[in-house]
Design a protein that fits this description.
Elements: E1 16-18, E2 24-26, E3 30-31, H1 40-53, E4 57-59, H2 67-80, E5 89-94, H3 103-115, E6 122-125, H4 151-166, E7 173-176, H5 180-186, E8 196-200, H6 208-216, E9 220-224, H7 248-257, H8 261-272, E10 275-276, H9 283-291, H10 300-307
């Protein structure tokens, strides 16, 4: 059967981190965004393989279009006795078209049905506005109904996130694709603070100010695109983008440790205290990604070298979410220190 996980043996155990709630979370996970390049069946087969080699954290989302397939893999794992539900940390996200009144609960109900779960360990607001695009669109696509960030609208969505947390349907709630100005606006209004934040993070785009801001407030960062996402959608590629695995500083560390440069990117992030969520459907690659966190750590000098190599190169610019009147993708990210209207 597609996605079978039978035959598991000697899984790798990733070190655990502790959230502000006291709950444990693996220090590395597997992303499941592959809708632009991989079929739902290919992604679910990779999830099955990842379970077999030892992954226990899986980052899902309704918009990825594969939660139903992944849910079958989880159900098989639990039914076989190979794993218990509490052995896994499973997260998902509410998509931008489900920000209306009552929509968060509806969205989560579908995700739980598709993943065949009674709860998720974490549920995120995928983007901080209701702007969305057609699946597979190109970088020039624009939705004329898109709007700039609204504090009132976001807090209405967050209020619904707090409700599903109180209902026990999401053990933790989190935010994604936020900026410090937006965090400064919303955090004082939250009855339940976010436990985690997802943010683009890799050596060429380290976001240390946002990273440190979250750590100081006991919000656990999860880094997406941790190796620079070479297989990201074409709409997210632009001239001048830095390829992390070809950065001289990364290649030098990789040569010293005799490992692939991609693994240096992951080890760097784990040692900082962020949780990378790389995605691969290649068994050799996702196994190596997991195993690297248990190998020899990078030295202080190597960590310092990578810290100094930051190029401030955002890869997921999000331009498809721009609203009428916005000047450029930079308006999404409040680069002037204030929320862009």
């Amino acid at each position: 059967m597609e996605g079978t996980i039978k035959g598991a043996e000697l899984p790798v155990k990733a070190p655990l981190l502790t959230l502000a709630s006291g709950a444990k979370i693996p220090s590395i996970g597997m992303g499941t965004f592959g809708s632009d390049h991989n079929s739902p069946g290919e992604v679910s087969a990779a999830v099955a393989g990842a379970l077999r080699v030892g992954y226990r954290l899986f980052d899902c989302a309704a918009v990825y279009g594969n939660e139903e397939n992944i849910g079958t893999v989880f159900a098989e794992a639990f039914a076989s006795g190979l794993l218990r539900r509490e052995d896994l940390f499973i997260s998902s996200k509410v998509w931008n078209d489900m920000h209306g009144k009552g929509d968060v609960l509806l969205a989560l109900a579908k995700t739980l049905r598709d993943l065949r779960l009674e709860y998720v360990d974490a549920y995120f607001v995928h983007w901080p506005f209701p702007n969305y695009h057609a699946p597979g669109c190109d970088g020039d696509a624009r939705n004329p109904a898109s709007k700039p960030f609204s504090l009132k609208a976001f807090m209405r969505v967050w209020g619904e996130m707090e409700k599903i947390h109180r209902m026990g349907l999401a053990k933790h709630i989190g935010m994604s694709n936020m900026t410090i100005p937006k965090m400064e606006a919303v955090l004082p209004l939250c009855e339940i603070k976010p436990a985690l934040i997802e943010m683009e993070m890799h050596p060429a785009f380290q976001q240390r100010e946002l990273f440190d801001y979250c750590l100081k407030r006991k919000i656990q960062p999860i880094g997406y695109c941790p190796i620079g996402s070479p297989n990201r959608p074409d709409r997210d590629k632009a001239p001048g983008d830095i390829i992390d695995t070809e950065m001289p500083e990364i290649k030098a560390v990789a040569s010293t440790h005799n490992i692939h440069p991609a693994l240096v990117c992951l080890k760097w992030q784990v040692q900082l205290g962020s949780i990378p969520i790389p995605m691969s459907v290649n068994e050799r690659n996702y196994t190596a990604n997991l195993r690297c966190v248990t190998g020899a750590p990078l030295t202080d000098a190597e960590m310092a070298s990578i810290a100094g190599a930051d190029k401030n190169c955002r890869l997921v610019k999000g331009q498809v979410f721009l609203w009428p009147g916005a000047k450029s993708w930079e308006d999404l990210w409040d680069i002037n220190g204030t929320i862009t209207k």
